[in-house]
């Protein structure tokens, strides 16, 4: 049933706006009209609105707003992420991705409606409310040196910021090394984990969390003043399928750039999105904490910060307090 459903769904989506007769669908997929009717009923139970008019046929009028694996596969088309895993609920898509990568050699996309133990860097919690955001992990197999991985986050953060800007028309800003903000509030955090051996990095597991349709009360008190969502900033709902399509396209583009170009080629684009220049901010890395201004981002991704006394500091990853 699932295969029919996916085929029928794809066909109806391709002809969205038009009616397609049951007879036509039956011929197309070489099944009975009853089988078509049953598949349409399944689509309806999964949140699709399908109009059916006598002598005209079927027409999709709206799609579900929850993650549906068939619709996702249709929307992402011939993306490099052909292996997609969609869950209702997981502890963390990052944990699932680590398990799945043992079984598959190709790029993987792991998505869940809710995470019960979503995590940020250094095991900090990541709030992942149901039906509101995008909680996703991507598995990639780059075959690169340990040195090269240092700039991966820089490419990915541009990919995320650009997708947000294109879909929402908002002004996302990158907070080095792994956050995206809108109007000084955090809308996205991502983390990059790697597997490698003595030859270099062979697997990247990149977990991305983006707040999309959250209302203020969807954030608990601990982050209500510091977090934001597309909805809170634009006062309108964003179609998560349109956004994920834009995001994956953008990530594929910048991942290709990461593999083929040095960071300096896109450094000016990065700086244009960056929110940390010309501001005195608090930088914390391990036990080290300073107040200073970022003055340079080197080609290898190292951030150079000048403190109040004029001393230079270099960071490869730090928490920055805005
Ligand atoms: C991050 O960590 O920002 C990386 C978050 C990565 C989340 C994704 S979701 C899919 C995948 N599966 C996972 O389990 N994780 C990844 P960090 O820089 O450590 O920031 C964590 C801090 O952000 C927390 O301590 C909170 O202060 C804040 N925070 C937590 N949830 C948030 C949210 N939904 N929106 C904004 N801020 C949040």
UniProtKB/TrEMBL annotation:
Question: Pfam families this protein is in?
Answer: BPL_C (PF02237), BPL_LplA_LipB (PF03099), HTH_11 (PF08279)
Q: Report the catalytic activity.
A: biotin + L-lysyl-[protein] + ATP = N(6)-biotinyl-L-lysyl-[protein] + AMP + diphosphate + H(+)
Q: Where does biotin bind?
A: 115, 119-121, 186
Xref: InterPro entries? aa-tRNA-synth_II/BPL/LPL, Bifunct_BirA, Biotin_CoA_COase_ligase, BPL_C, BPL_LPL_catalytic, HTH_11, WH-like_DNA-bd_sf, WH_DNA-bd_sf
Keyword Transcription belongs to the record: yes
Give UniProt keywords alphabetically: ATP-binding, Biotin, DNA-binding, Ligase, Nucleotide-binding, Repressor, Transcription, Transcription regulation
Please give the biological process terms from Gene Ontology that the record holds.
Answer: protein lipoylation; regulation of DNA-templated transcription
Instruction: Say which enzyme class the record assigns.
Output: ligase
Q: Which intervals hold domain BPL/LPL catalytic?
A: 77-259
The cross-references to CDD domains, in alphabetical order and at most eight, read:
BPL
What EC number is given for this enzyme? Answer: 6.3.4.15
Where in the chain is the DNA-binding region found?
Answer: 22-41
Its domain of life reads: Bacteria
Among the entry's GO cellular component annotations, what is one? Answer: cytoplasm
**What are the protein's GO molecular function terms?**
ATP binding; biotin--[biotin carboxyl-carrier protein] ligase activity; DNA binding; transferase activity
Functionally, this protein is described as follows: Acts both as a biotin--[acetyl-CoA-carboxylase] ligase and a repressor.
UniProt lists the family membership as follows:
Belongs to the biotin--protein ligase family.
What the entry lists under HAMAP family is as follows: Bifunct_BirA
Q: What is this protein called?
A: Bifunctional ligase/repressor BirA
């Amino acid at each position: 049933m699932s295969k029919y459903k996916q085929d029928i769904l794809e066909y109806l989506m391709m002809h969205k706006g038009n009616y397609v007769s049951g007879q036509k669908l039956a011929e197309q997929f070489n099944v009975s009209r009853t089988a078509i009717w049953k598949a349409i009923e399944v689509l309806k139970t999964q949140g699709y609105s399908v109009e059916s008019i006598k002598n005209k046929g079927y027409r999709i009028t709206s799609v579900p707003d929850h993650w549906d694996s068939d619709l996702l596969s249709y929307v992402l088309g011939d993306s490099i992420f052909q292996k997609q895993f969609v869950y209702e609920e997981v502890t963390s898509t990052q944990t699932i991705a680590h398990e799945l990568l043992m079984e598959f050699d190709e790029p993987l996309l792991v998505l869940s409606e809710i995470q019960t133990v979503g995590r940020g860097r250094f095991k900090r919690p990541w709030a992942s409310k149901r039906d509101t955001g995008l909680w996703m992990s991507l598995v990639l197999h780059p075959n690169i040196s340990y040195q090269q991985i240092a700039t991966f986050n820089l490419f990915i953060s541009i990919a995320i910021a650009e997708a947000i800007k294109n879909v929402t028309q908002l002004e996302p800003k990158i907070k080095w090394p792994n956050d995206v903000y809108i109007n000084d509030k955090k809308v996205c955090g991502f983390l990059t984990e790697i597997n490698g051996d003595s030859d270099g990095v062979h697997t990247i597991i990149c977990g991305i969390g983006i707040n999309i349709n959250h209302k203020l009360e969807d954030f608990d008190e601990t982050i209500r003043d510091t977090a934001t969502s597309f909805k809170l900033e634009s006062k309108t709902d964003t179609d998560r399928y349109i956004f994920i399509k834009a995001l994956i396209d953008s990530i594929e583009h910048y991942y290709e750039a990461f593999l083929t170009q040095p960071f300096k080629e896109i450094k000016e684009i990065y700086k244009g999105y960056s929110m940390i220049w010309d501001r005195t901010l608090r930088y914390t890395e391990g036990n080290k904490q300073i107040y200073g201004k970022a003055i340079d981002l080197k080609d290898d991704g190292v951030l150079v910060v000048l403190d109040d006394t004029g001393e230079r500091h270099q960071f490869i990853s730090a928490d920055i307090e805005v």
